[in-house]
Specification:
about 230 residues, alpha+beta, 11-stranded mixed sheet, 13 strands, globular
């Protein structure tokens, strides 16, 4: 189990060794540079100012906060990319969504969303549920149901969920939850006006990453508590 994080300038470092870095990305920061000079500030470039060999292995949406794994060098990037492709990296997110989420009878507090996803090209970067899309699977578990808004939220029913993406499609968690009628609060792309107005940010956080360390083989788990 990794130790607690430390703030180093404009980076929150959760873990550092000779092979991998785990950083805690704030909401609103890009994972990688975008198009245009105004979209150059991003986590990977901030990391490369300290570790020039740091390379991205996966990404988080700009609006999503939480744990991001980086490789130190191209060889480790290839190794970690294969781990992701083989689904050997396990991820857990937390989200607060509109309404009360219920599963099937006898499994009220857990379930899964199995809906194929496809790029919505006329409305990029949005994605959509489509039978022609790629298979996409999300498992969820209820952590709490709230009748009134938490601090900083407009009042109304909401559910705090643990989310376990089995696949890793773009915007998967956001689209899947919107598709079952429970958009993530503060989601500027997929929430309705009421759900969007209930939070000043997207309430989605990557709070746990686990894998067998590519060098030692030891099971390693990194955590970041959600800031909401």
């Amino acid at each position: 189990m990794a130790s607690g994080s430390e703030v180093d300038g404009d980076l929150t470092v959760v873990h550092e060794d000779d092979d991998v870095l785990v950083l805690d990305k704030p909401a609103g920061l890009l994972s990688a540079p975008g198009r245009g000079e105004d979209k150059q500030d991003c986590l990977v470039l901030r990391a490369q100012a300290r570790w020039p060999e740091a390379l991205l292995v996966h990404r988080l949406d700009q609006a999503t906060s939480g744990l991001l794994l980086l490789a130190r060098g191209p060889e480790m990037q290839r190794t970690l990319s294969m781990c992701f492709a083989a689904r050997q990296v396990h991820k857990r997110y937390e989200a607060v969504v509109d309404g009360w989420v219920h599963g099937s009878p006898g499994r009220e507090d857990e379930g899964e969303i199995d809906l194929p996803l496809l790029a919505d090209w006329p409305r990029r970067p949005r994605q959509k549920v489509d039978v022609q899309g790629k298979p996409s699977l999300t498992r969820w578990q209820v952590l709490a149901r709230e009748e009134r808004g938490q601090t900083g939220l407009v009042s109304g029913r909401s559910t705090r969920l643990a989310l376990f993406p089995v696949t890793g499609r773009s915007h998967q968690l956001r689209v899947h939850l919107q598709a079952i009628g429970h958009p993530i609060l503060g989601d500027a792309l997929y929430a309705d006006a009421d759900s969007l107005s209930r939070s000043p940010r997207l309430l989605l956080h990557a709070c746990e990453l686990s894998l067998r360390h590519p060098r030692s083989g030891a099971l390693t788990i990194w955590n970041s508590p959600p800031p909401f």
